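Q: Got a minute? One more chain.
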Amino acid sequence: GPQRGAWAAASLPALAAVYALVIATLLLLSLASLWPFPALWPQQLGLAAWARVADAADTLWFTAALAAFASVMALILTVAWLEAAPARWDAWAMPVVLAPLVLPGLLLMAGLYQGALQLRLDGSLAGMAWVHVLVVLPYTFITLHPAWRAFDRRLEHTALALGRGRWAFWGRVKWPLLAAPLASALAVGFAVSVAQYLATQFIGAGRHPTITTEAVTLASGGQRSLAAAFALLQALLPGLAFGAAAWIGARRGT
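A: Always. Here it is, folded:
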C-alpha cells in the first residue's frame, strides 16, 4: 500500500549510503599496500593490486559476457512463457520456478553436476552457460511476472482492431511500455550470474574463472588489497547493470 511505498522510498537513500560506504572501503583496501593493525589509515598506498587486475582483464570480460548471455537467455525464456501461456498456468509454474530458490545451493549444484556429467557438459563453456541460465531464470521470472501480467490487454485489442500486426504491436507498444521492467529483469539476472560461485566451480570444474571465483579464492589468502580489488569489481559490475536499468526506467517515466 501507500505506507509500504513511502517506506521503500525513504529507505533508498540509506541503502545507497551503505552501498557507497562499502564501495569506498573496498577501494581504500585495494589501494592499501601496507596497513598494519591497529593503524586507522594505511601507511602506504599504491596501484600494485590494480596492475594485477589489469592482467586479468580477460576474466572480467568473460564474467560480463557470461552474465549477459545468461540474463538475456533467461529473459527470452521468461517472455516466451508469459506470452504463450495463459495466466492461470502461472500457479502451476510458480512452484517449479521457486524450487531452485528453496533448495540448498550445494544440493542443487550437486544435482545439476550429475546432469552435466550425463550430458558430458562438465568443464565446458556450454555447461556453465546452461547452468547460469537455469540459476538466473527464477529471478528473471519473479522480477518480470507482475508487470507483464498487469499489462492492459485492451491496448493489444485496440492495435489489432486498427490493423496492426502482433509484431508491430509488440515492437511499438508493448515492449516500449514494459522497457523498465524488462531492463530491471535483465539487471537482476546479470547480477545473479555475476555472483555465482558454486555453479561456476561445479560445472566449470575450475577451468573457467570469473571475478567471483577469483575474489573468493583471494579472500582465503593473505593478499588483502588484491582481494579487495576483485571484490570491488564484483560489486561494480551489477552496479553498472542496475544503473543502466534505472536510466532506462527514468527515460520511460518522462
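A: Residues 70 and 129 are 6 Å apart (CA to CA).
Q: Perfect, thanks.
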